[in-house]
Amino acid sequence: QVQLVESGGGSVQAGGSLRLSCVVAGISVTNSFDWYRQAAGKEREWVATITSAGDQNYADSVKGRFTVSRDTSDNTVHLQMSSLKPDDTAVYCCHYRALWNGRHYWGQGTQVTVTA
């Protein structure tokens, strides 16, 4: 069974940094994973992807500030966030879509709050 568990959120001042982690169980972290976020009252927004080949893709709003990576030693996907802005405030979720059945898997999310 695939399980995704995020951690690392918190409250930080604008300009600060946070590192989010997504512990993956049930499948290898060498698959393709995404980070999404949802701010209060807004639709869910794609943030970043790390593909099975290791390629990284980012939304324009976070490009140059966020870095997605994976650690095969502990089967974890990370999102390093720097130069944070109040607009980055949201619940951040890890996502995986299974190729064999098309099912979407989501973590419970971790809250990131950036104060001005």
Describe the structure.
The protein is built from no helices and eleven strands. The mean pLDDT is 97. Helix content is 0%, strand content 53%. It is mainly β and 116 residues long. Strands 2, 4, 5, 6, 9, 10 and 11 form a seven-stranded mixed beta sheet that branches. It is globular.
Percent range of helical residues? under 10%
The gross shape turns out to be globular
Overall pLDDT score: 97
* Number of discrete helical segments: 0
Counted beta strands:
11
Structural class: mainly beta
Strand content: over 45%
Low-confidence stretches: none
Gyration radius from CA atoms, angstroms: 13 Å
What is the terminal separation in angstroms? Answer: 40 Å
What is the succession of H and E elements? Answer: EEEEEEEEEEE
Task: Please summarize the sheet with the most strands.
Answer: 7 strands, mixed
Oligomer: single chain
